[in-house]
């Protein structure tokens, strides 16, 4: 739990020496991380073979929990309309990034994730090689975010209504659970269970473990897949969601904005909102275990 903060601090310490090329420090690890995650999917034959059978239920829960979370956060975030203006790291208002560049970013995500899956399926590299790749990528991402830590903290202090942002994790949590319950109605699932799966907020390993223990392996796999899809959607949709609100990608990322999707937050948002995304992910990572135990 403390390692991300250590690497963030390391990035802040060396910031004066690498400020000029911190963007490259972010981009390359992001693509390596996607490749590593894709490889892990390709290595998991049980996961791949079960997707057609259980994927629809997982997808419905994922989409409803994600959409409700984004909708509630955007509605709540309208209270901070002044803070939302110009918050994109690469928006038209700051760096002239247009829709074409955003679509290219999405295609790159799909390409590296797909290449990783193909590598896992066809070449079957040992897990011992894949895990260090993922861990090193995450370390580089933390260091890169740490480079902008000072600017981010200064920006957070200047955000209008900043004190109310402490409630952001609670709003995301409420939307995720409500969306999960609505999905339960649609799929004729246990409402408490579907609410808990939606409340995983991308924390798929923990959600799968707790749901499997409570309701069996099949429901545990649905929990895993629903929350894993949410993580993948965060990579794919964040460049477009930021056009709606700077809080929308953070809402979709949920607990993952502390680690795996943090790089995408930094690509889409400015320093202060990237730091807000990290703090949000850290809070949700702490909240989620207690929330799931309570719901289950």
Automatic annotation (TrEMBL):
Record-linked Pfam families: Lys_export
Annotated InterPro entries: LysO (IPR005642)
GO molecular function: L-lysine efflux transmembrane transporter activity
Keyword Ubl conjugation: no
Coiled coil: none
Transmembrane segments: 26-43, 55-79, 103-123, 130-149, 164-186, 193-212, 232-253, 274-295
Keyword Nuclease tagged: no
GO cellular component terms attached to this protein's record: plasma membrane
PANTHER family attached to this UniProt entry: LYSINE EXPORTER LYSO
Name of the protein in question: Lysine exporter LysO family protein
Organism: Thermacetogenium phaeum (strain ATCC BAA-254 / DSM 26808 / PB)
């Amino acid at each position: 739990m403390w390692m991300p903060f250590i690497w963030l601090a390391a990035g802040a310490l060396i910031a004066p020496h690498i400020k000029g090329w911190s963007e490259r420090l972010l981009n390359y690890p992001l693509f390596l991380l996607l490749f590593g995650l894709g490889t892990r999917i390709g290595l998991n034959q049980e996961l791949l073979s079960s997707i057609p059978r259980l994927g629809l239920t997982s997808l419905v829960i994922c989409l409803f929990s994600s959409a409700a979370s984004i909708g509630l956060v955007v509605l709540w975030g309208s209270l901070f309309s002044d803070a939302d203006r110009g918050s994109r790291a690469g928006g038209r208002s700051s760096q002239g990034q247009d829709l074409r560049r955003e679509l290219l970013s999405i295609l790159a995500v799909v390409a590296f994730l797909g290449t990783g899956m193909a590598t896992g399926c066809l070449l079957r590299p040992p897990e011992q090689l894949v895990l260090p790749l993922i861990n090193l990528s995450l370390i580089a991402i933390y260091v890169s975010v740490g480079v902008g830590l000072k600017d981010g903290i200064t920006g957070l202090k200047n955000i209008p209504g900043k004190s109310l942002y402490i409630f952001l994790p609670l709003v995301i949590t409420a939307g995720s659970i409500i969306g999960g319950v609505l999905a339960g109605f649609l799929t004729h699932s246990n409402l408490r269970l579907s609410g808990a799966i939606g409340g995983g907020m991308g924390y798929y390993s923990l959600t799968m473990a707790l749901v499997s223990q409570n309701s069996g392996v099949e429901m545990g796999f649905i929990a895993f897949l629903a929350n894993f899809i949410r993580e993948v959607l965060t990579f794919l949709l964040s460049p477009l969601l930021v056009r709606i609100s700077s809080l929308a990608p953070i809402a979709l990322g949920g607990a993952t904005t502390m680690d795996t999707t943090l790089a995408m937050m930094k690509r889409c948002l400015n320093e202060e909102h990237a730091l807000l995304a990290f703090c949000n992910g850290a809070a949700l990572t702490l909240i989620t275990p207690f929330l799931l135990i309570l719901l289950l």
